[in-house]
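FIELD: query
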Amino acid sequence: MTPGAPAGGRPGVCLLNLGCRVNRVELDLMASELEAAGAVLVDEAAADAIVVNTCAVTGEAEAKARKAVRRAAGMPKAPAVVATGCVASLFSAELSELAPNVVVEANKSLVAGRVLDLLGLAAGSVTDEGGLVSAPTPTGRTRPGVKIQDGCDNRCTYCIVWKARGRGRSLAPEDVLAGIRAAQARGAHEVVLTGINLGSYHWERDGAPDLRLSGLLDLIMEKTDVERVRLSSIEPPDVTPELCDAMARAGERVAPFLHVCLQSGSDRTLRRMARVYRTDLFRRAVEEARSLVPRLALGTDLIVGFPGETDEDFADSLAFCEEMRFAKMHVFRYSRRPGTPAADFPDQVDPRVMAARGARMRELAGRMRREEAAGLVGADDLVVVQYPGRGVSGGLFDVRVPEEVPLDTLLPVRLSEVLPDGTLVGVPR
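FIELD: result
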């Protein structure tokens, strides 16, 4: 969101995002259409309309979404509130009942048009098939994303997102290329390929081999001169030799980072989650990726307190995470989602036990991040400057840089030291 007040009598729209990177990319698409039609992005208090892009991945996320919608509806200007996202898809009636000025639009391709109708402006066109937002984006983000895939065909027992997002589907490669070129035209140095199940990218082509993610990377390297591409989260079976080879061939043009979703380091827990791999596959995938991609940093998501998780299961998960040397971990306490198989599993874990396990896992995550950062001292890297004096490295480490370096610069640095909090210091080279 870009704070401020409506300018020159133009209607003001506030955009609130909850949830994943895909949500953020979709919100940026809406922002581009709204600005093109004459709206201006403002903060909540100045808004004539507010879009709340919701997330339902956990019960806490759903509660935050409902709170955000109620708060938006209660703003002094009594704005029109358009709720969208996963909570809107799953619980439309409940959101509609929160306030009389709340409109629910689960189809994100229609949100911008709905807002423009409410504001009395002419609508353009927005699609939900994917697209790119330039850098910086209308909502003020750097490192713009391109959504190349949506939906998921897996059926993990804890997950409700597939019900909201539907089956997996992919964006045509020519649209991906066009989006990247558009971002470059507006000054983007790094773009992030995003999707709900990114590694399942699959495009069928007449008379040619089907295109997978590895082939798409090769195509991007061949057909564009974008300085750096980054992959968002990916499932372990999709970390293939072909993908790692494509990353290696690209050199610095693909960020040396993979966020591989583990969820648990216990095979017993993975079976109950209905995950489509076990720890041995994860280990092999990581070993091969590290052998092919120099200085690869590894991120992951992890759930603690899944139903039936014993002390032994948690100990196994903790030990496996330490073995994997994750540079970045998102640690979540299990959230019971009605309508999922896991919600009815026996042996639900006491919240106090979950909290204790989460604290131990986050302590490990912090230590590993500092250790992995220390291992980069003396190395050269490319840093995207996101804030005055701060940016992120290829491996998504925080890096301190001179404050005079302009924002959105892709800055070559030598990593000279690591600070106690794990932040690296980058010396321009």
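FIELD: remark
The first helix runs from residue 21 to 36.
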